[in-house]
Design goal:
- The structure is a homodimer.
- Chain A is built from 18 helices and 18 strands.
- Chain A has four domains: 144 residues, BirA Bifunctional Protein, domain 2, CATH 3.30.930; 46 residues, no CATH class; 135 residues, 2-Layer Sandwich (BirA Bifunctional Protein, domain 2), CATH 3.30.930.10; 110 residues, Rossmann fold.
- By secondary structure, the first copy, chain A, is of the alpha+beta class.
- In chain A, the strands form four sheets. The first copy, chain A, has an eight-stranded mixed beta sheet with strand order 1-5-6-11-10-9-7-8. The first copy, chain A, has a five-stranded mixed beta sheet with strand order 15-12-16-17-18, sandwiched between helices.
- The first copy, chain A, starts with 16 loop residues before the first helix and ends in a 10-residue tail after the last helix.
- The longest helix of chain A is centred in the first third of the chain and has 20 residues.
């Protein structure tokens, strides 16, 4: 018998409770930090008009857009068109990133504050080839300040994202800093023609992966002379141990009175000022100037930055100033600085490095019952749920049908649902089970008491129902009397 | 000049910060209550295979599915097919509801607990004609217990959803209760042929809207004899003032030893037992038996229920037992009870009835500055953000560029972004502005102090920086010295 596959479509994922607990923990930390910086939340629809999306991500991006097929008459009409193709078959698609929707929102709502500090954490869709850590449906996490042209905006965005990484437990991350105009100036100063700037930067962008010799080869392969390639690498890769301010002074001196200096000097001044500002923020210990930082996207206009971890290829986030993009749907340019955190990557790294705190996924206890009426079970559950534990309501699952007590207790200790794809597909990592059970028998029901059993320690106490939560906390703190079974 | 529209696509919405604050408040209340009942969160992808979705929602549902157009070679091949239609052009689509994904998840992951109590709050997509309160992209909020066949499951689902409505501030809601098998039995007892059961129930479902006379007309129009129609209405609409138990006894007596009684009596027994159980839960004061409650969906197999508000057409939620659906992707039926809350409708009603608490959307204060270095501004912002207010970090927006103090203060009092579609499209409801500003001038910077100004009261104090949050709370509590300007 051929059965329908029940796996989620390739490149998409189901988030089971334990997995979701980790995702929500991270999102909560991010929202708290961004909120403390005065950023507010925005959400936009998954569906956008293709007129909004097309042409914003380059030709490759256009091909990766998910398009929504016309229906009924519109589909019939489209199929009757000579040479029908995707342009005729769809006029809406799925959100590809969070920046174009932001630009649309900024153009649409006049009531937004002049300085719009927003964060947005939502899924985006790309019809890319799925792979390890690469999905077709995945979350982006963007934070942007729209409307401000001062370096304070750069400083605040860098500080906020650095503080997020710190709050999540990353200690050794680096905030690499560069400037789009400095990069252009250095390419020009190396004697590379402006027409070759793009191709040169694509090569430079690989420095991380292929090293200096690799980039040199790549530059040559792209038609850049060996002398220019040498000089470019010299300008871009001065020993960072010299210190950022020394590097800036060295670059100023190297460029001297060349024509490239006219472009480079304001950029170097901005970098020097930004370094000084960041020294007053939580990013202070993490900042490092990196003149070779290119970042792929061509839309940046000023300072750019990237958050990296030692030993990790690629980044966990990055951004910069892009003053020509947010105004694209309006009549004038609007300055903007933003950063995108690689949420999926961050989740993976927290997992790999064991940085997650203990997260309770499910209920605090299972209410087991025998020899009592069902309404007594419900009344007891209600009384337990009205109690608080750690500032929130006690979470109580009721064993949902009659069964022997041993069976109910066994259910409480059995592993719970775990994330099927947290580390490997269908890993059967042991679940946490439940920390405790409450037992309601005839004697408890008539006495208004409840028996609480802490499963790890095996400790058990019968107490007045009203003292259940308090007792539970005491039991959880008591060291186990015996080595717990099965540990 | 023809400009691209920056409105979200028809039937979809942008959620601006103030709107999102309300949505998140409601979701948080729901999650807290569901969590206290031991329900855990599940999320599934927006994209599902059409093999999963098709045929699950009837012919009409299939037509409302959003389908994702094939790309590249797959599209070319599809277009080359003779008589190409939507079946050839797509094999994936957007999630239409949260029940079919739940069934898929239950079939896929063996590690799920035997009794899977999950809630799921995610958007779904339907290519329906948009209208007031009807969207193409909207959130559903489902809560289900999978795997349990005891009435405890019904009682817990009803109790949890009733508690949600109570926690949101609805006092007068009614939990209407019926049983699918009772309904079938009463249709049969009225002398209506089993083949006409479906059409008869469609008519009965309109009782709310068209009244008894209207339903009678409708039944006749659907080919049901006047005598049968009369008898059906008599059985379904006994004066509810008689009390639920009396109604059950009356129905038992009316059916007597008819063949229909064999179906009706177990259902009546279950309803009587469920009424007794619900009396022990937060639903107690709200439950009412309604033998005419039909609910549109044909997949229910046992008790059904609906949450209504007096004077409101339609419901704010509903559900029931459906023992034949969750197992559809596996080899055997799996019992299930669930309820879907009408999240969009609840949001609208909370708005209309003024039931939202005051929700702070943005920062607690704007840091205004003049005559100081930028790094001092950032240091001060950081010191403020490290302070707490009401259990969370103080939320501080920094005025992001140099400007006259008057201009900065004006920015703080100006209305903030409001929800453009909360009550009417593009209503320009006044925003809340910011409650307070912090002012950092040269004297404050050198003395390590900050000047705080509460905007509503006009009260102002200069205090050591470390006392800012504490002072702010004091200022907010102080009654205004003068009538605040503009109020």
């Amino acid at each position: 018998m051929s059965r329908i596959s029940t796996k989620p479509p390739s490149g998409t994922r189901d988030f089971l409770p334990a997995d979701l607990a980790r995702r929500r923990f991270v999102v909560r930390v991010i929202e708290e930090v961004f909120g403390s910086y005065g950023f507010v939340a925005l959400e936009t629809p998954a569906i956008e008009n293709l007129s909004t999306l097309l042409g914003k991500y380059g030709q490759e991006g256009d091909q990766l857009l998910y398009r929504l097929l016309h229906r009924r008459d519109a589909l019939t009409r489209a199929l009757a068109t000579a040479g029908v193709g995707e342009a005729e078959l769809a006029d809406q698609g799925l959100r590809y990133d969070l920046t174009v929707p932001l630009a649309r929102v900024v153009a649409e709502y006049r009531e937004l504050p002049r300085f719009f500090k927003r964060y947005q954490i939502q899924p985006v869709w790309r019809a890319d080839r799925p792979g390890r850590g690469r999905f077709r449906e995945f979350y982006q996490c963007d934070v942007d300040i729209v409307g401000a042209d001062s370096l304070l905006a750069e400083a605040e965005v860098c500080a906020a994202t650095a503080q997020v990484l710190g709050a999540l437990g990353f200690k050794d991350f680096v905030l690499q800093l560069n400037h789009r105009q400095l990069l252009r100036a250095l390419v020009s100063a190396a004697g590379i023609d402006a027409a070759q700037e793009g191709t040169a930067l694509v090569a430079v962008d690989k420095l991380d992966k292929v090293g200096q010799a690799g980039v040199q080869q790549e530059l040559t392969a792209r038609g850049i002379g060996p002398q220019a390639a040498d000089r470019l690498l010299e300008l871009l890769t001065r020993d960072p141990a010299a210190g950022d301010r020394a590097s800036i002074d060295w670059l100023r001196a190297e460029l001297g009175p060349t024509p490239a200096a006219a472009l480079a000097l304001p950029a170097l001044d901005q970098l020097a000022a930004l370094l000084e500002l960041l020294a007053a923020t939580p990013a202070a210990a993490h900042v490092r100037l990196n003149p070779a930082l290119a970042r792929g996207l061509s839309y940046y206009t000023g300072p750019i930055f990237e958050l990296t971890l030692p030993g990790l290829a690629g980044s966990v986030g990055g951004g910069g100033r892009y003053d020509n993009l947010i105004g694209m749907f309006g009549s004038q340019p609007i300055p903007a600085v933003g950063c995108s955190l690689g949420l999926e990557r961050i989740l993976l790294l927290l997992e790999e490095r064991g940085l997650y705190p203990t997260l309770t996924t499910g209920p605090d206890l299972l209410l087991c019952w025998f020899g009592v009426e069902l309404d007594a079970v419900l009344r007891t559950a209600h009384a337990l749920r009205a109690q608080t534990l750690g500032g929130r309501g006690l979470r109580v699952e009721v064993y949902p049908q009659a069964a022997k007590l041993a069976k109910q207790l066994q259910y409480a200790t059995a592993p719970h649902a775990t994330a099927p794809h947290a580390t490997a597909p269908h890993a059967t990592a042991p679940g946490v089970g439940l920390p405790a059970v409450a037992i309601l028998g005839a004697s408890e029901a008539s006495a208004g008491t409840i028996t609480l059993k802490h499963l790890a320690s095996g400790q058990q106490r019968t107490v007045p129902l009203a003292e259940a939560s308090e007792t539970l906390q005491g039991l959880a703190l008591t060291p186990p009397a015996l080595t717990p079974a099965g540990s």
